Amino acid sequence: MDLKLAVFDFDSTLMDGETIDFYAKELGLMEKVSRITEEAMAGRLDFFESLIERVALLKGLEYKRVEEISRSLPYMKGAKDTIEALHERGIRVVCFSGGFRVATSYAKEILGFDADFSNALHHKEGRLTGLVGGDMMFNFSKGDMLVRLQALMNISKEQTLVCGDGANDLSMFAHAGTRVAFCAKEVLKKEANIVIEEKDLSKVLEYL
Predict the structure, then answer these.
(1) Partner of 109 at 20 to 30 A CA spacing, among 19, 76, 82, 183?
(2) Which residue is catalytic, options 2, 9, 144, 200?
(3) How far is CA 101 from CA 8, 24, 35, 47, 128, in A?
């Protein structure tokens, strides 16, 4: 297969867990936030509404702490090796995340992907305001961004691999020939042509 572009989700794909849950833990709100995340990833809640609701709960959290947490996230087994192997084949690797730039831009330095598109946590006077904005706010955002990237890079659907785990990855699945559901929700598995149930991202390489 003549792949030119590989797009990975961040939370529960390149990273082992949900970034926002790690932030919420600081405020003793992990259970509440992760319950909303779970519903959104299963496709039972609108992604935009769930994101707004979850980030609002983080209001007041010290931004310095957010940065520290973002730099200590556990990356998925095989993530770095997989990105390196794809690069060796001349494939560009991009991260699309409904999560946050403060985490994905740091991960870019560690894991070595080429670009990241995510959301920014608004902060003022050193603390989160509970507001958020950015590239990946809606259910359709990943698909929308993928189509623009493909046009920019002159890459076809058949030359594109996407990999994710939740309902907000569905929109990018619609525009890729190789669709990997990684330890994913049922709603995404139905649209995939590769299903990986083991928490090891390098398993992706076995299909290429």
Answers:
(1) 183
(2) 9
(3) 15, 17, 22, 17, 14
